Amino acid sequence: MSSNLHPMLNVAIKAARAAGAIINRAALDVESVRISQKQINDFVTEVDHASEKIIIETLLTAYPGHGILAEESGKEYGAKDSEFVWIIDPLDGTTNFIHGFPVYCISIALAVKGKVEQAVVYDPTRNDLFTATKGRGAYLNERRIRVSKRTQLKDCLISTGFPFRPGDNFKSYLNMMADVMQRTAGLRRPGAAALDLAYLAAGFTDGFFETGLSIWDVAAGSLLVTEAGGLVGNFTGEADFLEQRECLAGSPRIYGQLVPILGKYSKFASAGDKAAVRQAAAADAPEAGNTPEAEGAADAAESVAPQADAAKGEDAPF
């Protein structure tokens, strides 16, 4: 730990490294790790719980008056009315971890009066430590990082996460991916949103989008991005996104080009944009025979095709 860092950030780093040691030990024999399922395709392991426990103990030992918001235990620990709240994801990328796929991380953020001011994202497999303090920049292993300088979407690598929970709109996500893929150099799905945002901050990727995310998935990563010179918001470009379950991030110019592409898929999109997206999804649905329902959906899709085309728009001229 560095004496130049904010003392609260130093404590978060200590907590992240302690959790990383637990995760790395468990990764040596991942097949023996006990796994349970919160819902379909949403897993939690004894390692998640052990990681979260050591993080909370480390933070509250240093700051017993602070609040805690953690993925597995919620607000069970810490002060209930503090202006200082630690937001913790003890193992982001659990599905990767239980398969031995080495893309996962620990995410710790400190929010003060609702604004994220300290952030740590730690990748224990690579010993990569991403840190940020509001107003002081973002760092990877004590080296200052910045978002990429690419200005054209066609040259960019974009990361995302696929829907995997019951009720997720998979067809809409396929349309989103199609809209992005045809305009970019590539789309990636690593499987850990906090690490996706950290990689964006470091300039390894140029943009990121995903729906269904919780505050602990994005709190630390969002500060890394903004302190590295990037922008973060929801799909329509609004900055108040932490608890809206949709996240769009990028370097300023690429962010500006992604908003008109993805904005129509936002739950905050206009009624016209939402209708166009629904009709496009109906038009792209797998063949269901010549049923009246299928024919009606096709007719409806055809009638709104001009509106859907208009909604897509062109890349913003940045």
UniProtKB/TrEMBL annotation:
Keyword Hydrolase assigned: yes
GO BP terms: inositol metabolic process; phosphatidylinositol phosphate biosynthetic process; signal transduction
Residue ranges of the region described as Disordered: 279-318
Compositionally biased intervals (Low complexity): 279-305
Reaction(s) the record says it catalyses: a myo-inositol phosphate + H2O = myo-inositol + phosphate
A GO MF term: inositol monophosphate 1-phosphatase activity
Listed PROSITE patterns: IMP_1, IMP_2
EC number assigned by the record: 3.1.3.25
Transmembrane stretches, start-end: none
Cofactor requirements of the protein: Mg(2+)
This protein's UniProt keywords: Hydrolase, Magnesium, Metal-binding
Broadest EC class assigned to this enzyme: hydrolase
Superkingdom field: Bacteria
PANTHER family linked: INOSITOL MONOPHOSPHATASE, INOSITOL-1-MONOPHOSPHATASE-RELATED
Subunit structure: Homodimer. The rRNA transcription and antitermination complex (rrnTAC) consists of RNA polymerase (RNAP), NusA, NusB, NusE (rpsJ), NusG, SubB, ribosomal protein S4, DNA and precursor rRNA; S4 is more flexible than other subunits.
Family statement drawn from the similarity comment of this UniProt entry: Belongs to the inositol monophosphatase superfamily.
Protein's name in the database: Inositol-1-monophosphatase
